[in-house]
Each structure stands twice: as C-alpha cells, then as structure tokens.
Amino acid sequence: MSALHDPRLDGELPRVDRGRLLAALRALLPAEAVLHGNEAIAPFECDGLSAYRQRPAAVVLPETVDQVQSLMRRMNDMGVPVVTRGAGTGLSGGALPLADAVLLVMTRFSRILEVDADNLCARVQPGVTNAAISEAVRGLGLYYAPDPSSQIACSIGGNVAENAGGVHCLKYGLTVNNVRSLEVVTVDGERLRLGSAALDGPGFDLTALLTGSEGMLGVITEVTVNLLPVPACRRVLLAGFDAVGAAGDAVAAIIAAGIVPAGLEMMDAPAIRAAEAFCGAGYPTDAAAILICELDGVEGDVEDEATRVRALLAAAGARDVREATEAAEQARLWQGRKSAFPAVGRISPDYYCMDGTIPRREIARVLQGISDLAERYGLGVANVFHAGDGNLHPLILYDVMNPGELEKAERLGGDILELCVSVGGTITGEHGVGREKIDQMCVQFSDAELAAFHGIKAAFDPRGLMNPGKAVPTLARCAEIGGMHVHRGELPHPELERF
Amino acid sequence: MAQTKQSGDDALTSLAGRIRAAAAAGEALAIRGGGSKDFLGHVVGGAELGTGDCRGIVAHEPSELVITARAGTPLADVEAALAAEGQMLPFEPPRLAAESTLGGAVAAGLSGPARPFRGALRDYVLGCRVLDGRGQPLAFGGRVMKNVAGYDVSRLLAGSMGCLALLTEVSLKVLPAPPVAVTLARECDEAEAIREMCRLAGQPLPLSAASYGDGLLRLRLSGAAGAVAAARRDIERSLGAGESDPAHWEALRGQRTGIFATPMPLWRLSVPAATPPLELPGRQLIDWAGAQRWIATDADAHTVRAAATAAGGHATRYRGGDDTVPAFHPLPDALLALHRRLKAALDPAGVFNPGRMYGTL
User: Fold this and answer.
1) How many CB pairs under 8 A join A and B?
2) Which ipTM value was assigned to this complex?
3) A301 neighbourhood in chain B, CB within 8 Å
C-alpha cells in the first residue's frame, strides 16, 4: 500500500493555490489558529500510523463551531479538500494529511459541556479525551464504557470517527453502542443535530452511519455519550496455557457456557515475554499463551461466574489460574496487557499492528495460519488481542532500516487480513480502514457494494472534498490491485490448509 | 437446510426481478413481512412485495453469540432457536403477532422494555444482506462482533422502514438469557415514579425493565439468582415495593396492555428519561425507565410534538389518527434533504416504500 495519494488510483484532486488558501484561512481564523511552514506543521504529518507521513498545505485549529462552519463553507467554495483530525492516535492513517489539503485539528474543542446524571449522558466537545469523560463523572458513580488502549490521549471525536473499541467491547459494545447523539458540520457548512437527547432520534439512524465514517461524511463538533453506573464488583483472572489452541478453546468454552466477561484478552508467548520485561505484571513467561478474564457486575453474580470460569479454564487445560480481587492487583494484571504495544516496541525496532476480526471458533487455526505466514516472510509476530470478540491484533515485527522489510511487513499484514476475510471475518474490528487497509477493502467488498459506499459518500459530500482517498477505495484502485489479489469466493493462499 | 437454501435463492431471484421491473416501470413497491406493523407510518400506494418466501435460519452457533436468518423468517422461529440454547434477543422486539418477521422487526427498529438497560435493536445488528433499488444483492457488516470496514449500512437500515433497501438476511448479536427474573411493584404518583426509575437506573443493579402505568411503578430484575435476590432486598427496603405479576412485561412487549387497545390515536414519545410528567390530555404509559412515553390522546399533533420537542425528544403518531398528519416527527429541511439524497443513492428510482416514513421520501 502506498501512503501517498495517487491521482490515478484515488481520484484527481483539485490544485490548490497555497497563497490564496493561506489568505483565505487568515481571513477566517485568528492568526494563531493557522499553522503553515515546515516547522509548525511537522507534528501533524502523521497520526498513530507513523510509517505514513505527509505534510498538509496548512493546519488549522479552530475553537468555535462558527469557525468550523465558515471554514467548511469557504473551503467548499474554493474546492479545497479538508482532512479532519482529533488527537492523532488513530492506527490506520485515517487522519493522514494530504499535500493539497487543509488539516482541520479539533483538539481545541476540549470542554465537557454538560453532565446529566439523571439521564445518564454527557454532552462533550470532540477534543475531550476518552479518559477525561470517565474521570469527570467518577464522583457520580458513573463512567463511559469504551476504553481504547490510547484512552488517556485519544479524543472522543476521533473515537466516533473510527468507531473505537477497547478491552470491554464484548459486554459493553463499541463507540457506536455508547453514543446517543452527534452534532456535525457538513461539507457546505451546515450544522446538523443527529439523534436526540432521548434514546433514539427521528428519521434514519445517521448517528450510527456517521460513527466509524472516518471523517468522510462530516466534521463532528459535539458528542452526547451514554454513561453507565460503575459495576459494584470486579474480578480479574489470569490463566496460563502450554498451547495456544487450548487458550482459544477456553475462550469458546466460556462464551458457550453463557458467561459474557467484561474483558477476555489473550497474549501469546512473544507478547507475554515482552510485556513481562517491560512492566513486570507477573505473567508466566514460560507459557505459550495467557488469558486475562475480567468479570464485573453485582457481587453474587461475579463470584458465581468466577467459580465457573475457573472450572472452564481448568477443563480447557489451563495449568494455573490466578485471581485478583484487590484493585491494585487487578491493575497490575491489566498493566501488562495495556502496555503490550510499547513493550513490543522495545523488543523490535518497528512493529505494524493489524486489526482483523474472526469468528471465535477460528482463533486457534487462524493463529496457526498467521504463524505459518510469518515464517514464510521471515518476520516475527507477537499476538495480543481481544479474544472474547475474536478481534486479533497481530503485531508484525520489522526493522525499517533493513531495506525492503517495511514492504514485506505490509505484504504479510495484507495476507493476514485476507486470511481473516476467508474464514468469515473482517479486515478491521476497531482501528478503521483509513489509508492503511484501503486495498483490503477490495477483498472484502464487491464493486457494487463499494459503489453503494461511494453513493452514500456523495449524498453528504458530492465533490469528495472530505478526507479524499481514505476508507473506501475507488473502483479503479480495486481493478489495479485485482491482478495481485485473489477475490472473494476463492481463498487466498490455496497452499495453506483449508479451515 | 439445503432445501431452505434452494428456496431462499429462488425467492431472492424472484424478488430481484420484481424490483428491476418496478424500477424500469417507475412503479412503487410496498415491502411487507408478516404485516403486523401495517399500521406504522403512511400507506404506500404500490404493489405488495412480500418477503415470506425468503425465510429460514442460515446459521446459529451458540458459542459465537450470533444468529443469521433470512428476512422473512418469523421472529418467533428466531426466538425459539435461541431459547433452545438458553439465548435471547436482548432488545426484546415487540411480539405483535405470530406472523411478525425478523426483517420487519429490523426495518421498524423497535425495541421492547429492556431497551434502556441492554440497548436497542440497532445495537445488536451486526450485518445484513439486501437487494438495493436496482435489484442488486449487496452485503454489509458481517457475522463477527466487531467490524468497522465500510460505512455502517446495516445500522442505517435498522429503523429505516424499508425506505432504502429490501432486507433479505440479517445477522444479530445475541446474549445468554438471564436465569432468574423477578418483578416488583409499588403504587405511587407519576412524578415520583420517574424520579425513582432514574435513581435506580443510575445504580449498578440488575434492572432489565421499568415502567409506570395505572398508578403502578413496576421494576424487573434479571440475572443470576444471588444478584437478583440481593437487589430485590435493596429495592424492597428502599422503595417498599413488593413482588408482582411478571406477565406484565410480556403484555407490554406485545403491546397488549390497556393503552394499546384504546380507540384514540396512540403516540410514542421518545424523551430523556428524567422528563417530568408530560402535560398532555389522555391516557399515558411510561416505559424504558422514563424514556418512552405512550400517550393515547385526541390532542392535535402540534401539541403532542411541541411537548416532545420541548423535552428534547420526538413524537411518532404510532397508531390511528389522521393519515394526513405526519406519522414520523418532521425533520429540519437540511436533514430531510440528506435523507432524500441517501435514498437516491440506494434506491434511485424510488421503488421502496415511498412515503411510508416521510411524504417526500
């Protein structure tokens, strides 16, 4: 996948006269809200997918919705594309700038506007961080459920744009399940309220459509999130396994027994060892896999479930099970999982994080398939993932200084995603398509389905000025890569064992 | 299963042919599943497009917590298959008639008493297959728990009243059914009932429903035996509530309680839960722990809608009344224009259910 916009494959973009653009931006916004010049805009050249970099024509940091509206109106009149960005922690290049576009940064929208404990919701600006919402309502015994691992830095606007997940999705859902209403500004500067202050809104469910739309349909200027009561009781269990397959079977057994854990996470040996070296979470470093299972709810239920989960883990072949009842010990067990990415970053010069989701029953076999593919490419892979959701995060280890290794890692990543699609899964569970997985969209969707996406896009943004080149590939791009990929209906990698 | 698949494929071919013909002739089609929600929205003046031949459960593997079925499958069949494995549709779609179909439930997007505690139908939609307005088969979403590839068309279709595409297959996330449920009730006035429902909803209790009608606040607790017993003791002590007939919830879910039988127009108001008692004439029933207010009233549409809007919500003329009064809450112009453009993208000839939701859609 090439990071840079390719007019031949991604569509022509209008030419932008930078002098004229800067003059227009300065007329709309205070001087300090318009950044240009290499030094000022360098921090914005990439998001969390730092392998892809591009400096935009200009960066703007408005503070009011009025400013966003006039900006969009003016850019629409001038035909200048706009890429919207929150905190820039996204992992799929969704906020990767374009050379001939304005980068609209929403971080100055950082106020919590209203906490409504009676109606269990909070109205917040898009630049508020995910963790700040839960912090602000903790005194009320409430919290905001989705918790992506970047939660202390990522913004709620970005969470909505990418439909962010986290470790508690199986029980509490993704962002889309926890957002009640949105205010958005359209490409022509119109301010729209989607959903309502009630549990649903009139008309089509545009709140759901905008969630996960990756900045392609509108600029999110306000979010009303649902708040939940903090569970009365929480237990965390840690189980070590001698075989990855046994851990995968334990996941299926727990779900099949009618238990829905708050979190059910798995790590394989390379990930366990990296995490242990990084923060000393107390993981068994000689295990082939560990499962971390969090149970929450009313005390009686949780104790009951913990007993049943222990038995199921043992039956699946867990060699030991530890249970953390105290908050400090629970936090320590989670610490290793939550710092797994930076931990892997210490054992490998670079890593590339994938995000495929598969049916849970395929976990063991897909992990084997990933291992076979990695061996063929001669690259290491560490697996940390949301096992309860079947959401894999293989971390491909590579060194960008070794010529050709980034490309090899990208090809391995692409093969892993196609493997996920071939067993009935998807190329992205929670990170979004962005720029990174745009080619794999051609594998998951037919031309007619992609055309439907383009039709939806055009209903909001007829000239394609919002975040062009992301999320949905052009049919030209799919035709071009069609020669290199086997389309659906046929499994990629026929040489691999069929699942 | 092979038999079902064969007949399902034939049904799809036939449905696609009818859609293409209607699009070519510029004619409308009125999509109909079991017909149990014919009363909802405006009458569509086109030939009926029935989904009855497109039926059957396609996949249900209990450990995946997913069920996939064709749109014309009776909702009762889906629920029976789940119950056999100790599972349920957590959002409790209204059980209006034996003929109600899965596709109809998803198209209407309605959820039952558990909605404020477990989420709405749209929260459990994982993916769907449709025929678009050109008769093309398209698939969106999938059968896995998390999927953010492409726009979330499946959830857009939930509650779209068949105005965008014909649903042919739906995949839903399902959950284990709680082993124990208990119903508690206490007499009180409406304002106190609303306050209590909101207070309890903000606490970590195994609540699964809360309603108020005929002077009675009713609460349902669901979960493991120990947790339900503990919560029950709490609520009995703090509220003085006693055990009550659990049949109430089935009647409420089936829309068979008194208010649904009145001859007056029936309105559904979706408002923030803590909204104080609405000053509207007629009979009222509160569900969704305060967030859904059913009102049987002769009051004019403007008065009812003004009350909903003032509270931050919206009002649907759910059943009965004057068909010239918009059934669904009118949208601001810019939003309605966007609805039209979305419809044009998926149904360019305007074949599906024109006018069912909004006159110009």
Assistant:
1) 273
2) 0.97
3) 206, 223-224, 226-227
- Which spans in B119-210 are helix H? 121-124, 153-157, 190-201
For A470, which residue in chain B has the nearest alpha carbon?
B150
* Nearest residue on chain B to A473, alpha-carbon basis: B150
Among the listed residues B280, B309, B306, the one whose alpha carbon sits nearest the alpha carbon of residue B294: B280
Q: How far is CA A403 from CA A2, A255, A345, A376, A414, in A?
A: 16, 44, 19, 18, 19
CB contacts of A441 in chain B (<8 Å) are: 149-150
Question: How far apart (Å, rounded) are the C-alpha atoms in residues B191 and B204?
Answer: 22
Residues B159 and B202 in one domain: no
Question: Does residue A491 surpass a pLDDT of 60?
Answer: no
Determine whether the interchain pair A141/B65 forms a contact, defined as Cβ–Cβ distance below 8 Å: no
> Are B160 and A431 within 8 A, CB to CB?
no
Chain A contacts of B139, Cβ < 8 Å? 446, 449
Q: Which residues of B touch A204 (CB under 8 A)?
A: 156, 159-160, 164, 339, 342
Domains in chain A, CATH or no CATH each: 7-105 (3.30.43.10), 112-229 (3.30.465.10), 233-335 (3.30.70.3450), 344-482 (3.30.70.2740)
Interface of A with B in 437-496 (CB under 8 A): 437, 441, 444-446, 448-449, 452-453, 455-460, 471-472
Segments forming the whole domain that contains residue B307: 258-319
Among A55-64, A438-447, A475-484, B341-350, the least confident range: A475-484
List A416's β-bridge partners, or say none.
Answer: none
Nearest CA to B268 out of B98, B22, B37 is that of B37
| Tens-digit pLDDT profile for residues A354-388 | 999 999 989 989 999 999 999 999 999 999 999 99
User: For the ranges A485-499, B61-75, B188-202, which has the lowest average pLDDT?
Assistant: A485-499
Give the burial string for B220-248 (b: 16+ CB within 10 Å, else e): bbbbbebbbbbbbeebeeebebeebeeeb
Q: CB of B116 within 8 Å of any CB in chain A?
A: yes
User: Which chain A residue is nearest to residue B86, measuring alpha carbons?
Assistant: A258
A97 contacts A44 by C-beta, under 8 angstroms: yes
Residues of chain A with Cβ-Cβ distance to B159 below 8 Å are 200, 204-205
Cβ-Cβ contacts under 8 Å, A306 against chain B: none
What's the burial of A15, exposed, middle or buried (CB within 10 Å: 0-12/13-18/19+)? exposed
Q: Quick one: A486 exposed, middle or buried, by C-beta within 10 A (0-12, 13-18, 19+)?
A: middle
Coil/strand/helix, residue B327: coil
Statement to judge: residues B79 and B172 lie in one domain: yes
The Cα B24–Cα A6 span in angstroms is 38
Nearest CA-CA distance, residue A183 and chain B, Å? 12
Residue type, A241: F
Q: Which of B232, B253, B274 is the last residue of a domain?
A: B253
| Residue B306 lies inside a defined structural domain of this protein | yes
Question: Tens of pLDDT along B140-173?
Answer: 999 998 999 999 999 999 999 999 999 999 999 9
